[in-house]
Please model this.
Amino acid sequence: MSTSTDLSQESISSFADNGYLVLHNLLTPSETKNLQKWAQEVHDLPRTPEVPWMPYEEVNSTGARVLCRTENFAPHHAGFNNLLRGPRILSILNHLAGEPMLLFKEKINYKFSGSGGFAPHLDSTAYTHIRKIKHLTILLAVDAATMENGGLEVVSGSHEMDVPINGKDNCIEPEWVAGATWTPCELQAGEMLVFGSYLAHRSGANKSSRDRRAVYATYNCKAEGDLHEEYYRDRAKEWPATHMRKEGKEYATGALRYGFGSPMLSVASGKQLEV
Model:
């Protein structure tokens, strides 16, 4: 694995203008196979009370409960820790941010066949309670992402717009969503999308017969300090992993702060959410 990736001025300018950037050929075929292997390893991690990683379930289109995502796994998986905190990805983010960046949080969204979608939203809504700073997020495609299997769509330039958020569900107001131009970001396995926390994005349900996994990692500027543990302490309290929920307890604050617009909310309702 190479130790750094240089970005052209054209790429840096495109990111500044559009709010996102697609990077092809980031990983070699063998590295992509490792990525797929690691994603399966994280999926298979045990779900017991003492584990620090955070798996979340959803209810899929057949009414079955399946794994939706796993968070906070990088410190406990050498391969992912080296990749997500390594010089190749950090050099890209440092160039785009204009300053050094640190890993803030990480997750794998599994989006198996029949799994639900994510409503239009801004990521910043889930982050600014820690610090009111801008973040950069990467999406590493574990499997090819298409519109059929629930790939990401973005609104180019929306990071510079005043995107209205509905305070009741923390998602983007439907009227704005209907009037916006949504751009598909289809990716091949091993390709990467970079975007900021104020870019409007969404993804549909996986209506294909194939699973579509994606690694998301979010970074904050190093000048703000290492906030990884602080973030996950609050998340564990307000929005614990599914197997750590206490029967009869409501997690309304966590649902609004961390679960908004996501298939994770379907566990409480007992049915797949329509987005």
About this structure: The CA atoms of residues 74 and 141 lie 17 Å apart. The mean pLDDT is 94. Helices lie at 9-18, 29-43, 78-84, 87-97, 174-179, 228-238, 252-257, 266-269. DSSP finds eight helices and eleven strands in the chain.
